[in-house]
Amino acid sequence: xxxxxxxxxxxxxxxxxxxxxxxxxxxxxxxxxxxxxxxxxxxxxxxxxxxxxxxxxxxxxxxxxxxxxxxxxxxxxxxxxxxxxxxxxxxxxxxxxxxxxxxxxxxxxxxxxxxxxxxxxxxxxxxxxxxxxxxxxxxxxxxxxxxxxxxxxxxxxxxxxxxxxxxxxxxxxxxxxxxxxxxxxxxxxxxxxxxxxxxxxxxxxxxxxxxxxxxxxxxxxxxxxxxxxxxxxxxxxxxxxxxxxxxxxxxxxxxxxxxxxxxxxxxxxxxxxxxxxxxxxxxxxxxxxxxxxxxxxxxxxxxxxxxxxxxxxxxxxxxxxxxxxxxxxxxxxxxxxxxxxxxxxxxxxxxxxxxxxxxxxxxxxxxxxxxxxxxxxxxxxxxxxxxxxxxxxxxxxxxxxxxxxxxxxxxxxxxxxxxxxxxxxxxxxxxxxxxxxxxxxxx
Length: 443
What we know:
The chain has helices spanning about 15-40, 50-75, 105-110, 135-150, 195-210, 215-225, 295-310, 315-325, 390-400, 400-405, 410-420; strands spanning about 90-95, 100-105, 155-160, 165-175, 185-190, 250-255, 270-275, 280-285, 335-340, 345-355, 360, 365-370, 375, 380-385, 435-440. It has a five-stranded antiparallel beta sheet, sandwiched between helices. The chain has a five-stranded antiparallel beta sheet with strand order 6-15-14-11-12. It has a five-stranded antiparallel beta sheet with strand order 7-8-9-10-13, covered by helices on one side. The protein contains eleven helices and 15 strands. A hairpin with a 2-residue loop joins strand 11 (about 360) and strand 12 (about 365-370). It starts with 16 loop residues before the first helix and ends with a strand. The chain is an alpha+beta fold. The radius of gyration is 25 Å and the shape is globular. It folds into two domains: about 15-195, 2-Layer Sandwich (Beta-Lactamase); about 220-440, PPM-type phosphatase domain (Phosphatase 2c, domain 1), CATH 3.60.40. The protein is about 35% helix and about 25% strand.
């Protein structure tokens, strides 16, 4: 990548070797001290304050490790081939020449975006094709402000790699002006900050949960006997759910907290676009002790959206998602249902992995979809997906409500009826928390 510095703008001299070495020593001592305090501290996994403290320690250690590697790069210079997964392999650079329409990328940037370094770098017009749909307008605004108004770039967006993984990238850049003061090119440094942002979200969500839900013995007792209602799950604020529906569908989702003391399920529900007007509907639950930490379900939803954007069909999602999660620190999917709905033909295809079949309510009757994994829906049908925490008695109870559920005027009313049926103090056959997704077929 060619230098963007002009003759009257000399490059800053690197700091002396000795001063950087001293900073490295200080950073490593501090990291060791923090790690020692973290190991000595007692953290109760069932205590929200304990989880918050543990998350803060982990975040501090993560940032100190990054600082150590940054300082090492200052001392040693960039390595010719950084080890895969290291911090240096997560920092890349690029320059886009507006006069020749050529792009120059570092090898690290290709690796960050999951592209083959032997391929041609993407132009500025092509770059948004890798960006998550929700973030494309943000990237466009940053690039336009840089090229038109000469504003520096400093922002983040999410990219979807060809293998379906979603990564968060922090981009910093500025325009390079020619002798006439016009923008000749744009250079940028991009860093993969996915792990750092995940750690920060854990800290933020556990802190917010601690502030929102301080409980004493009396409040726990009241919670055990009060009826439950469908509410947004803990991770709901991290991702946008299409509350106004998708083509041909009226959608609503809800989270049904179980009785006090029951395990949290780490469940999710989501609806996202597939190519054309098709919609992917999914519900599922995560296994493991950290499954209910809010970022975990949100990251799984992001992975599903990335796989769907890459063209994965619902029948392919169980295996592809399982393989993807095996390479991460996220818990495995304990049960998931994945449905694709085409509004023009009203065709529903579905696949599941250790999860219950969707329930279909029509004309006063209700039944589980059969193993054919395909069905043709009709206007007014109500499709109900739920995580696999319902005992058979609870499913039979829902099917007995078919006259009311099939007559529901909206998906939101359907979720309300389910919440009433399953929200009593005895949990009505629920093992623990449940996520539900209702989809009502519209003309």
